[in-house]
Every structure is written in C-alpha cells, then in structure tokens.
Amino acid sequence: MKLFEQQELHIYNSISKEKEKFEPIHQGAVGMYVCGPTVYSNVHMGNCRTFLSFDLVFRYLKHLGYKVRYVRNITDAGHLENDGESGDDPILKKARIEKLEPMEVVQKYTVDFHETMSKFNALPPSIEPTATGHIIEQIEIVSKIIAEGYAYEVNGSVYFDVVKFDKKHKYGKLSGRNLDDMISNTRELAAQSDKRNPQDFALWKKAEPQHIMHWPSPWSEGFPGWHLECTAMSTKYLGESFDIHGGGMDLKFPHHECEIAQAEACNHKSPVNTWMHANMLTLNGKKMSKSTGNNILPDELFTGNNDVLSKAFSPTVAKFFMYQAQYRSILDFSNDALVASEKGFNRLMDSYRALTSLSVAKKSSFDVSAWRQSCYDAMNDDFNSPILIAQLFEASKLINAVKEGNETLSEADLEILKTTMHDFIFDVLGLTDDVSETNTNGDKLSSAVELLISLRNQARANKDFATSDQIRDQLQEVGIQLKDGKEGTTYSLN
Ligand SMILES: [Zn+2]
C-alpha cells in the first residue's frame, strides 16, 4: 500500500482560510504550480525561503508516494510594475545598467538561481517553463478572454475588464478584497491611461520604441502582461483545474487574484483547488528588500561575507534554520539564530551517526512506532516542519539514553528509528550531512593511517628500524601522532 493511502495530509488553503484534507483531483498524482523567480538579479535569502518551502512540499508529497508534476516558471519577460504605465521592465532596466542583451541578463541570473537552489539541495521542478517560450499560448488566452467578453483592446494594448468580470464571477476571492472598496479607495485614472477602470490590468501591452523585447500579435507588436504567463503555463502543463498553486505571500494580490480571473474568464471554472502562500523572511525585523539594502544573498551567507554575520554558514544549516519555522509564519533572520541552528543541526547529526553503534536489547522501553507516526502527524498538519524537527530531537534524546543504558531498543525498533530518521532528515527535509562528508574522508584517512601502522609493524618485526622510524617521523610532520601502547599502536591528529 502506498504511504499516501495511510497518511491524512491537511493543507491550509489560502482561499478558504482553513486547513483542508488534501485530496488530489487524480488519485495518486499531484499537479503543483509555483511562481518562480524574475531573473534580473541574484535571488536573496527571502526568495530562497519561498522556494525551499515548496521544495519541502514537493519532497513530502513524493515521499508519501504521490506522482508529482511540479511546474515552476522562469519570468524572463513582461514582469512590469504598474502594468507598464509608470513602471519599467526590470530585465530591460538591468540590461541597460549592465550593458547586456536582455537575454544575457536572463541567462546570467537563471544560472545563478539554479546554482543557488542546488547548493541548498532543492530538487529541480519537473518542468521549468519560461514566459518567452510561451508567447503563442499567452496570445491564445488573450484572444479567448476577448471572445468571452472580459477584455477590450485600446491602441494596440489589451486590458482585462475587472468590473465586468466581478459582476458574474466576483473578483477578489483569494485576497478577500472587495471591488467596491477598491474603487472607492482609488484615485482617478491617469489622464493618459487607456484603461476603462483603474482595477483593470494589462493582458497585452503595445511596445514603446525603447522596448527591445516584443513579439507580433493580432493587436500590436508588444509583450504579454505579467499575470498572463502563469495562467498560460499552468493550464498547458497541469490542465484547466489542478491541485496546488503556490508562491510568496506578496503574490496573493494582485498576481494570483488576476490569475484566477484570467482562468475563470477562459474556462468558467476555478483553476486551483489549494492555494498555498509562503511567508517572508525578515532581517532585523524588517522585510528583506533589494532597494533598501536590508537583505542577505546566499553567497554572503556561505562565505560569511556580510556585516550581520560572525562567520560562514553552510547551506544545510541555513535550510535547517528556515525549517525551524513553519512556512506560513514570518521568520526573522539573525546571526544568533543561525549559530543556534548550527549547534542543533550538529547535535542531530551526531546522534544520527551514533545509530550505527547502538546495542540492541530484546525489548524496547520506548514506543518507536508511535514516535514515527508523530513525525508524519507533524508533516500532515500543513507541513509543520518545526514540530517534525522537535520530534527528531526527541529521537536524538532517545539515542543518547540508549547509549547511556537508560532506555532500550529492540533490533526491529532500531531499524524503524534508523529508516525514519533517514527518511525525514535527508529525503523530506532534504538536508545534507556536511559533517559526514568530512567523516567519509575521515574514514579514508583512518584506513590509510592503519595501513601505514601495519607496514611499520612489519618493518619493526623485520628489525628494519630505519623504515619504521621514517613512517613515524613523516606522519608526525604532517600532524599525525603515533602512540605505541599495550593494545598496539594508536594515532591522534594534532
Ligand atoms: Zn505567477
């Protein structure tokens, strides 16, 4: 039997504001779409937290035995602030500053994003489509929305008619905003605007002469509105209705609200069953942001090269720190918290490694199966990683108690403990045992030294003291001290 049939997963749905029992549309398979990065600068730790939150979701669903199709897009065009009326395309802006082709900007920061994600041991999504690779699909959606009567063309640009949509479908379902309130809180439309209502948003924009990235369309030589790509790519790869749509909290409005409107206008049904939003990472209590300089880049963290850090931290420690908060709560980033996480992580790894040398008893004094289920219960409760980590520390306590002879474990229970810890630490949380990597090297080192010790013993047995002294002295030169005792020769590293 697949694990998903035994475990009852509940996910907080941002649209109903309730934890709901998760039941995928197709039994045993999950379709998940997550809004990916806009590739015009290095991702900061705040962005990383969002992607790592969904890596945890992806990993746990896979661990439960679901076949998951995880789609995460790359926004490489069309992400305009304020629908391009007063904003600028950040990719074009960066291309001007760095004197690069827009596609060079895109390539540079896509590579950086992938490298960063792989340092964090995040799994790549199943499909990673780009906005520029789906212009035809986006144009089709615009045509469909026009045909349905929810969009209009003015001077080569196409806008979504929010007021008309709201009458039949209700706009604001996800964010809980009410269109009447939005209207009464908005100032008059700018005189030059082509929009009928300030709440309308661009589906297609006619390119101004300075715009380098543009494509032909039935309305003008132009480019798609930002919200459109996610509707186009999620529909193409996951269907008109799919299981999970995720993203950062800041995307709830307007981005996700607009995605819902576009999809409902086309397909007359709700595109997403479960909306998930990951909360932000703050630094010194304030939102991480590029413009204010209040942010930390992953590489600064890995090298310790930032004034707020006292030292370098490994990606796995940073990840462990982030998973000590549930994805829906705000997490404040600080040096002290990272230092504490590093200690905790090392403690956990020490006890995990101690599992191999535990002695077994006939009977267990501890209910390992109940503990195992409590790990699942934590994750089944809306991916509550801090509770899972607390359970792993419970196991760590148990391991120490067994070592000291205060608790006992049967052979079968020790196996369950080992497998469960391995599954959750490495497969679900996706942590890596950096220390054990040095340990593997340590094992190789110790085998090499043991070999030299036995060669030295042979030399001594043959009364070849020149060779035996040479081995001892040269090992000492590289910092390895040999000690001859009653039990034979041991060594220590200086
Ligand atoms: Zn999106």
Characterise the protein shown here.
The protein is α/β, with parallel strands linked by helices. The chain has three domains: 263 residues, 3-Layer(aba) Sandwich (Rossmann fold); 131 residues, Isoleucyl-tRNA Synthetase, Domain 1 (Orthogonal Bundle), CATH 1.10.730; 57 residues, no CATH class. It is built from 17 helices and 15 strands. The strands form five sheets. Strands 4-3-9-10 form a four-stranded parallel sheet, with helices on both faces. A four-stranded antiparallel sheet has the order 5-6-7-8. The structure holds zinc ion.
Concise synopsis of the structure shown:
GO terms for molecular function: ATP binding; cysteine-tRNA ligase activity; zinc ion binding. Residues 374-435 form the Cysteinyl-tRNA synthetase class Ia DALR domain. The protein has helices at residues 3-6, 45-63, 90-98, 102-119, 135-148, 162-169, 179-184, 226-238, 252-267, 298-303, 315-323, 335-354, 368-380, 385-403, 411-428, 434-461, 465-477; strands at 10-13, 18-21, 29-34, 67-72, 151-154, 157-160, 201-206, 222-224, 242-248, 272-278, 281-283, 286-287, 331-333, 480-485, 488-493.
Short descriptors:
alpha/beta, 47% helix, Rossmann fold, tRNAsynth_Ia_anticodon-bd, 494 residues, Isoleucyl-tRNA Synthetase, Domain 1, Cysteine--tRNA ligase, 15 strands, 17 helices, binds zinc ion
